[in-house]
Amino acid sequence: MANGGDEPFLPPEIIINILKMLPVKSLVRFQCVCKEWKNLFITPSFIAEHLHHSDHKNPFLLLHDYYCGSVRLLNQNMETIEILSIPFTHDLKIIGSCNGLLCVRATHYHGVSRSLCLWNPATRKIREIPQTTDDYCSICAFGFGFSSIVNDYKIVKFYNQEKRKKKEEDQDFTEAIRGYDGVEVYSLSTGLWKELEFGSLHPIRFRTTAVSADGTMVWLGKKDLNPVLVSFDLVTEVFTITPIDGVSPTYLGVWEDKLTLFWRGRDNSVDDGFNSTDVRLRLLVLVNLGRV
C-alpha cells in the first residue's frame, strides 16, 4: 500500500512485527537505520516480545573449554557454528545463562580479581557487577535467573563467613568448610546487593551449579549429609528445602522451563541387554517442587 506520495508505506505495527522476529545480530546492525528504531530496540515491551518469539526456536548449546579459554556455539546436530571471542583476559566460570545473557565470574577483569559480569555474546556488551565485601573469598556458590513477573534478573551468592574470618586473621584455612552460612542477592533493576536471612539453610553445601526454571533457582546440595534441593523464588526471595528420598541425582537441568533431575550410573540388577560397562541416564521432570 502507499501513502499520499509514491513511496511505499508499511504501518508501524507491521514493521514492529517483522523486526521482533529477527535475530539479535540483525537488530544490532539495524540500530543505525534511524533513531526511532534504536530507541525501539531498548524498550521493555519490544524486548519482551522479541524474547517471546525467539525463545525455544533453534536452540543452541554453549560449550566452554576451560583449558583452552574458548566458547563454542553448537547447533542441535552438535556442529560448531561459531567460536566466540572471550572479552576476558583470564579464566572464567559460567555461572548461568538466561534469555541470551551469560553470568560469568572472571578470574581477572579490568584489574579486578574474581569479577562478576553479565555478558551478552550477541551484542558483545558486558555489565560488571559491583563488588561486595566477601568477593575476595573464593569459596562461593552462585545462581542466576530471571523472573518475568517482576521483570528482573537476579544473582544469588552463598559464602562462608568462617572461611572469611580465617582469611582476615591470616590463619590456616585449608580445612574443609562445613558448608555455607551467608547468602546475598543482587538485583539488576536496582543495581544493589542485599543480605538475606540464612535461617534453616545452615549448614548447606552444594554439589552442582544452580539452574533456573519458571522464575525459580534450584541447587542440588546436602544438608546434614542428606541430599536436598534448595530452591529460591525470584519474586518472594524465599528459600525452600526439598528432601530427596533415595539416591541423590547426579545433575540438574531444565526441559521446557521445568526442573529436570538426572541420575547417571550403572545398574546390573536387570539383564536387558546392557552389559556392566553401559552407563544409564534416568531423568525426572518436576512440575512443582515437593518431596522428591
Automatic annotation (TrEMBL):
Positions of the F-box domain: 10-51
Query: Which PROSITE patterns does the record match to this protein?
Result: FBOX
A Pfam family: F-box
Which InterPro entries does the record cross-reference, listed alphabetically?
Answer: F-box-assoc_dom_typ1, F-box-assoc_interact_dom, F-box-like_dom_sf, F-box_dom, Gal_Oxase/kelch_b-propeller, SCF_F-box_component
UniProt cross-references to Gene3D superfamilies, sorted A to Z: 1.20.1280.50
Q: Which residues cross the membrane?
A: none
* Name this polypeptide is given: F-box domain-containing protein
